[in-house]
Amino acid sequence: SSALGMMDEVLIPALEQAGARYEQGTYFLPQLLLSAEAMQKAFQVLTPYLPAGNRSSKGKIVLATVKGDIHDIGKNILAVLLRNYGYQVTDLGKDVPAAAIVEAARQEEADVVGLSALMTTTMVQMPGVIEALREANLPCQVIVGGAVITPDYAAFAGADEYAKDAQAAVTAIARLVEASRR
Questions:
Q1: Angle in degrees, 0-180, between the axes of helices 29-46 and 12-24, rounded to the nearest 10
Q2: Among residues 69, 84, 114, which one has the least CA distance to residue 3?
Q3: Complete edge-to-edge strand list for the sheet that includes strand 161-163
Q4: Candidate from 17-21, 105-109, 156-160 with smallest mean pLDDT
Q5: Any idea of the CA torsion for 122, 23, 169, 63, to the nearest 10 degrees?
Q6: Which residues contact 137 (CB under 8 A, 6 or more apart)?
Q7: Structure confidence by residue, pLDDT tens digits, 67-104
Q8: Three-class SS of residue 18?
Q9: What mean pLDDT comes out for the span 160-170?
């Protein structure tokens, strides 16, 4: 479909370019947020025209922005991408307490839980959420991401994977679902 082509060939590369410019220091947070907001609007316009794919789910994913954090543009983009790739996505939104994430992972029988945080003040919630998921003996894998998250912090928090952006998260989630279904 031309909508899929526009997403794959124009929108996602544009967002990746904005992310790269942010990492290089030529774009700053306002430009990054504006480009993500523009992307979100474009996704909303294109979503009805995207192929539904086969209706069987590739995997069940629960996404949430951790408690205290109200930034969810990256998570929203990831949710759209995952749905387009055929995953069943439960998006809990932003400012989500650990107990709600654990409950959703249990109810949905999630293969993967994705946690995002954009601020250093909220990323500290991640280890507690991951610990709560492990204590609940849920078989799900956990991926973390967000502007302030690093691979080292993901390892410290106890995550199974780290993703620097939505596109990287899609690839990592495919690996995690594969691992969780073995």
A1: 170
A2: 84
A3: 88-91, 60-65, 112-116, 141-145, 161-163
A4: 17-21
A5: 30
A6: none
A7: 999 888 788 888 877 876 778 999 999 999 999 999 99
A8: helix
A9: 89
